Amino acid sequence: MEAPAPTETAAVSGGDGAHDKLPRARPPRGRTRDLALPSLIVIGAQKCGTSGLHYYLSLHPEVSMSTPKELNFFIAERNYQRGLEWYSRHFDPAARCRGEASPNYTAYPQHLGVPERIAEVVPDVRLVYIVRDPVERITAHFVHNYAKRREKGDMRATLTHPNTSYVTRSKYFMQLQRFLAHFDEEQILVLDQRDLREDRLATLARLFEFAGVDAGFRHPKFEQVRHSTSRKKRATRLGMRVQRMSRTRFGRRIPRRAWLALDVALPLSKPIDRPEGVAEALGDEVLEVLHEDAERLRAHTGRAFDDWSV
Question: Domain 34-229+282-301 is in which class?
Answer without folding.
Answer: alpha beta
